[in-house]
Amino acid sequence: MPDSLPDLLVIGAGAAGIAAARTAMEAGRGVLVLEARGRPGGRALTDTARLGLPYDLGATWLHQAVTNPLVPLAEGLGVTLHDSDALRRERSQIGARPVTPAEDAAYSAAWAEAEARIAAAAPDGAPDGAANGAPDCSLAEGMGATGPWAPTIEGWQGDIISAAPASRVSLRDFHANALDGGNRLPEGGFGALVARLAEGLPILFDAPVTRLAWGGREAVAEGPFGTIRARAVVVTIPTSLLAGGAIRFDPPLPAETMQAAHDLPLGQVVKLGFRVEGEERFGLPPFSSVDRQIAPGEPLVAMSLFPFGRPVISCHVGGDAAQVLEAEGDAAVEAFMRGEIAARFGADACKVLRERPIVSEWGRDRWSRGVYSYARIGRADARATLARPLAGGRLCLAGEATDVGMAGTVGGAWRSGVGAMRSAMAALAG
Predict the structure, then answer these.
(1) What class is the 8-43+190-264+375-429 domain?
(2) Tens digit of each residue's pLDDT (9 = 90 or more) over 365-423
(3) Where are the domains of the chain?
(4) pTM of the predicted structure, to 2 decimals
């Protein structure tokens, strides 16, 4: 516990909370961070023990590197950032065989057509539900993907990228948060980078907040740590916890704020990493990415193999399939992924996979209950609503769900934390 009460309180030590605390400290303000977990980073976590190599169980890439605020911070720490787009070697398959040049061309053409339809249906700057006078629609409807590659493209854009079925994702919101500007892989893992950015911050771990009074001239946080008072507070917990009442706000949050939290649910992704024994690489180069054509209703598995030449295969599946698999347990996830590897590389491929792979559990994690947010159809404006300061700025909500442009990413969470803390500090100065 701090020797003196802080001016500013931050709830949550994920990327948004770390950014908020750093912003306060850089301005010379007293700040304290309360974190429910026993570590910083939130949904960014690098494990180095279970595979004997760095493995990101959550966030992996610094997306939109041209404008991502974490890029200069990583460079300032001397962390090497690798150009993932330049290193990646992509291969698509139909069953166990690589696609022919003609099939690959058809796949690329189907992608281009789907992306053109999205851009036409949701032009830049159009408010939610107003483009061309048409109401918002689902990502699946906006894409209008057809042909044999349609389920694969929907699987990528929905379950993998949005962490939810394309039929439930707002087209407007998806388009507003489409990423460009390149991707970077931090040496040593993304979670490790975020943890380094938390070093030196006044964080109280294993300190979940159960009640937050915020209606007066000060905020009062209560939990197993006791009671802490501050002049303003930035809350960075996920929308899943806001909507689920993990913190009892007194007075209750405004109805429109709570509705926004419900309109921005967290999607689901389950991720598994196998370590490969020996020198087997299936004839693939480092940084390979292999997908395959799927049938309607079949889950898509995104598969990355041998990053940095390391003997690791990373598989992840999103949306409803991820939720079902994670609920069934790690053994079910492993069996499913082994079957997928066998389907792509033959039954013998599984013989080189080490036992006891590493499996994520974000859906089961009581402090996340999912991975990152998507907007329900017609609810893209919920992000701006959720980010709106309350009590004249003395209560601000932050996190990836409140960002527009990089929602669903660590970079978006970081931006939101900086903005929320600036609003809180401005309220104190007023």
Answers:
(1) alpha beta
(2) 999 999 999 999 999 999 999 999 999 999 999 999 999 999 999 999 999 999 999 99
(3) 8-43+190-264+375-429, 46-70+182-188+266-359, 103-176
(4) 0.95
Strand 55-56 relative to strand 81-83: parallel, antiparallel, unpaired?
Answer: unpaired
Reported as a single tens digit per residue, the pLDDT across 86-99 is 999 999 999 999 99
What does the pLDDT average to over 99-107? 97
